[in-house]
Structure formats: C-alpha cells, structure tokens
Amino acid sequence: MFADCAKIYVRSGKGGDGHVSFRREKYVPNGGPDGGDGGRGGSVIFEVDEGMNTLADYRHVRKYCAEHGQDGGKRNCTGKNGNDIILKVPEGTVIKEAESGKVITDMSGKNRRFVLLSGGKGGNGNQHYATSTMQAPKYAQPGQPAKELNLVLELKVIADVGLVGFPNVGKSTFLSRVSNAQPKIANYHFTTLNPNLGVVDLEGAKGFVVADIPGLIEGASEGIGLGHEFLRHVERTKVIIHVVDAAGTEGRDPIEDIHAINKELALYSEELAKRPQVIAANKMDALFTDREDLLKRLNDEFSPLGYEVYPISAVSGEGVRELLYHVRKMLDDINEEPTVFEQEFDPEVLAIGDDPYTVEYDESADEYVIEGPKIEKMLGYTNLESEKGFVFFQKFLKETGILEELEKLGIKEGDTVRMYGLVFQYYK
C-alpha cells in the first residue's frame, strides 16, 4: 500500500539519575563519596533509506520511544546509556511538528541523518559535589527528562518535472512513453493512485526526473477527490507539464480544463501557480475538428501567460521529442537545486525548557516568592552549598530575568526571597 502521510508520537530517553553512596571498606571507616553518574538517554534519529518509497510502516505503528539511561551505581559505576531509536524514511520526507504544522526537517538533499530529539544527559553522582567544606555530600543530580513530540510525516517526491491534469488526459501513457516507468493504465478516473516517477534520458542532453501526479479535479485544493492527497508532490518540481485532452474525448473544453487545474494549484499554494509551465496538448491523433483552429485558441489564451503549447500524441509519439527538449531547456534556464523546505521549528527548544515561573510579593510573610517548574528543575540539579553552584545559581537568576522582575516589584537589599525550601536575603 502506498502511503505518503503519517502521524506518529516520538520520545527520547530520560537520562539516568546520579547515585548517592560512600565507600565502605575494611579499615576505611570514613570513605568518601563514590556515587556513579547516570547514563545518557537514547536519542530519536531519522535516516533516509534509499530502498523505501512509502510511509506505510508508520500507519501501523504510531509510537516510538528511545531507551532510558540507567541510574548510576556504587563504586563510581556509571549507568548504561540508553539505546537510540532510528526511524527509516524515504528520501523527500518532510517532518513537521503536529500541533503547529511547522517544518522540523526535510530529509532530502544532503540531509541523510537527523537527530530529532537528543536523549537526556545522565545526572552526576555525589562524588562530583565533594568540596573541602563538604566532604560527604548526600546529594546527586537527577538525569535530564525525556523529550516528546507528536509529528506529521509527509512524503513529497523529488522530481524535476511534475505532470498535472485531469484524470484520463494521458499522463500515465505519456510517462510510460518518455521514461522507464511502467504505470498502470486504464480508462477510469483516478486510475493512478500513486505518484509515479520516471527518468527521461535525452540524446545529447542531460536527463531529468518526471513525476506523474494523480488526477486532479475541481475542488481538489479543498480536499475534494483523491487529487488533494497528492498535491504535495508537485511542490518540489521546477517545471510543470500541464497535460490536457485536446481532442475533448470526454466532452470537456481543454481551455476550461487548464484554467480549472491552475486554479486548484494556486489555491493549494501560491508558489505552485508561479512555477514555469508548458502545455502538452495531448490526443491530437484523436482530434476530428480543425487542428490549427484549436492550437490557435490555446496559444491565444495561454501565450500571454508565458505558457508554450506543444501538440502531442502520447500514443503515437507525435511531438513528444520536441516537448522533452523544450522542457530540458527550461530546466537549464532555471538551473537551481530542488526545493528543500527550511526548518521552522527547533525541537531542541524543548531541552531549554520554556516552563513558566512566577515572581510575587507575599505581604503577609513580607517576602518575595519565586515558583514554577523551571525554578524547581534548576534547584534539582544545582548544589548551592558549593561556591561554583552558587555562582551558577546567581547567573541563572540574571539570565532568566528573575532579578529584573524582583527589582520591578521594588525589592531592596536585605529583603527575604523564598524559592520552595530555599530562603535567602537579597543583595546586589
């Protein structure tokens, strides 16, 4: 089954906690601290797999979790690192944050491996907190927490040229004639249910990759019909070949068809509407009306828009060679790399933590109270009894803007500040 979109949940591993223990050996009555560090949690990593062309695997399994780091042990034993989880995806997969829809990374081009969520760092054992004034610290650092995200995976095929047009206009027949692709061809609407890729080889010129985008209909940009499911595959293409049934074998007007499809492309993405386009007036072999009159009508309508019209027959091969060499020239004039979607969302902001905090003055207790998950987390991994720890604590208060908040509330030197179980006097 072809699948080009999936929603999944991923979670990195939590860092192992540092250990609190002391040496207990014969003839060593007062051994120092020997608590080991926790192991690092596993990371969530995406990798491109050249052998994949669908996201079907992610339709069945939707939850992926890396392994937690092991806690530290006695005798300076470091906990085991958690195993990473590596998720294989086809080239061209765009990974988005589910809630905002913002792009995290595009698995195409040189981006073959991407660490989405780093595992939590293991906590320090109590051996790290021994000082000349505190030789038996009964405190160890907890491991950093796991990070989690809900993701949307979207496969956007990588092709130089996209074939668009209504169902049954001959796109699959055209692709099978000009490339090595072998799409299924039949006279039914939406016969093509997969975006088919084909490589076009040209004598004396560089080849290119063509994608046959499943048939669009009016309303596709609003989700009507199957065509909407595949519009994303046109986004990377540099040139669009608009295949139209010039003979009107299904009773439709080719000019109206072109306008209708272009309207759907524009409604889906304004960028798509600006892509260079060439019109392939197909099924000329089945045309029973005046050929020159039809081509004149098409040219009069679309030449002012910069679209050239090529009369072709995908069945007999008439005009196909001329069209392909024209498309090659268009690609040479553009001479740019395939579209790569830029990062809009950085999952590492989860590591920094955007946890809220509050700074308030408690009149009844005559003290300033600072609370919030961010504060509690900071106190959890800071040893305030060491000089280094206290310097780090002061820097944290300044960088997070807490000192500025206190000054806005009118704090003066000597006033009392409380953070959970910690109470201290404020001095500049």
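(ticket continues) Second input and output from the same batch:
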Amino acid sequence: MALKFNYYIPTKIVFGKGSLDKLAKLRLPGSKALIVTGGTSTTRLGYVDRVVNLLKERNVESVVFNKVLPNPNHIHVNEGAEIIRNEGCDFIIGIGGGSSIDSAKAMSMAATNEGDCWDYISGKSKMKNKPLPVVAITTTAGTGTETDQWFVITNEEQNQKIGWGGDKFYPALSIVDPDLMMTVPPKYTAYQGFDALFHSVEGYIAKVANPMSDMYALKAIELIGKNLPAAVKNGSDEDARAAVALANTLSGMVEALSSCTSEHSMEHALSAFHPNLTHGAGLIMISCAYHKHFVPYAEERYVDMARALGFRDTTDPMDFVRALENLIKECDVDSLKMSDFGVEKSEIEALAANAMETGSDMMRADRVSLTKEDIIKIYEESYK
C-alpha cells in the first residue's frame, strides 16, 4: 500500500518550565483579548492575573470571561461572543483545561458569525466569516486542544455533545508550561492523562492513521505509561509533569493528523446526558470493554501499543488491555462507577442511539463499524 498523509499543524508551540512568562515577549495576534477561563483554580492560583499583567507589559488590553464549565455549553459560548463584540476584542486567550480552550475556539467563530453558535456546530448553518485568532494556555495535560483544530461543546437542553472545527481553528500560539499543572489534584491528573492516552490510542487504531500520526501516538502512549502514575502519586514531580504535558501536546497532534474513534462518541453521549461526569473518567470506565471489542480488528497495532505501555516483548494483542488495566490500577481510578455519576442502566439504549447520532463522524474512523447492539454491549460490560 502506498504511504499517504497530509501534514498541517500551523500552531506556534512554546513548551517548557516557565513558558508563561514569555507571553510578554511573544508576538500576539491582536491588541485586545477576551481571556476565557473556568474562573476557579486559574483565578485562585493567580494564573489569570499573571496573564492580565503580562499583556499589560505589551500594552494589550484584556477582559475576563470566567464562566466556563467542565463540559462547556453553547449558552456560555454565545455570551462570550457577545462580550467580544461589545468590547471590541480582536483575539481570544483560553487559559485552563480543554474546556476553556475549546470555549475560546467556539467563541472565535461565534463572535464573527451571526446567530446561535449551536446552529453552526450542529450543521444547521455554515460559517461565513473566519474566526478570530486564539491563544491557548493549557493548565492541564488532557485534551491536546492546544495543538489541534477541534473543539467540543454541549447543548444540555438537547442532551448533545458535539465535536466540531477545521483548519481555521488551530491556535495561533500555544503555551505549555508544566509549572501551571503542578497543583492539579491526583484524580484529575489521572482523568486528564487518560484522556490524552485515548486520543493517541484511538488515533493509532483509526483507519485514517498515517505514518506521522503513528509516530506521535506511540511516543505519547509510552510517555503516559511511564510517567502518569508518578504524576498522580506526586503532583510536585517536575519530570513526570513535563513528560505527561509533552504526551498531551503530542496527542493533540495525533488528533490533528488522524482521528478519535467511537470510544469518544460513546463517552460524549455519557457526559451529554450527565454533564457532571468528567470526560476522562467516562473514557476510563468504558475503555477496557471497548478495546477488548476492537483488538481482533487491529491486532498488530494493539501489539505495538502494548509494547509502548511496557509489555516490551509481547506478541499478544490482548496485552494492551492488560497493560491498560494495570495503568488504571496504578493511577487509583479502577473503582470508578457509572452509577456514582447518576448513569442508570435503563439509559443505555438511549446512550447508544445518542452516540451513533452525534458521534457519527468519529465512528466513521473505526476500522470496523459498530452496531447499536455492539455499543449497548460495551456499555453493559462497563456498567457498575
């Protein structure tokens, strides 16, 4: 088979300890910024104030929007877009986890296009005007959104959570400073790390995988396998934090070059119905049953990933699932239960239908198509 791939990742990435301070010297894409954040830890730890002050050193004005939720919704995106227009902001800074940066990307589109942002995300309307430029400052190692062209927004009224984007949504600039991740609590370090892991795992088994995405995916999987347990156990471990942060940035590149698969479609359905469910936790809960189902369809690739996770000499593709189970235990997230987040077994059929409807784009990246019955079986095997 002839090798083919397209490579386009135009984001300038500034990575490493102390990188946030470079904001005062880096070229910025505008003169007035809307700073988008969740408003809790980023404010309490002084990160937002630091950004405001660093911008002042560049004579760049700023306004703060601090309402972003863990599963960001279209209402807040519309609200932020209105502030952008009223205040005359010409670029957006997302600071925080994936929810803040995803919200910034969505606002960049909503600010320059009329109407409800959900009409564009759901496919009802087509974007006519290019979005505003975005600067991403990630304070977590989970989504990889600082290096890709995608974002995910929830419509709670419709129980829909949809990923959307395109080449115009790559951040102009991304700052990845592991120092900003040192205070993330252990369970959230684990949730975020597994999200990054599954971005790379899914990108590696997707039928659109290519040599470039494969290179980044295997390295990210290796880095997470070696370093995530240490980062969970000791958040002050600078080397572990930096390694997981690098894995996360690489996982964003995997998403840019390949694709997530139906594992993400299934989790999006879960957290669309239950917005209090952290995305990474949802992925962890369905992951073992999900990958047991797919092992027969990509055996060589699962062997590669098992080796990356530490089973160096294996030839058994099921060792990936064993390595995954070990990593989940090492990170102390093996006791997660869907029922603890309000998910009821009676919802499973509706969840499966939702996953197929709203996650159809990612499901098309699967090497073999999942039926509704397959999805129900994976949910049932994961449920406790």
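Agent notes: The CA atoms of residues 187 and 232 lie 7 Å apart. The radius of gyration is 20 Å. Closing as not reproducible unless the customer responds.
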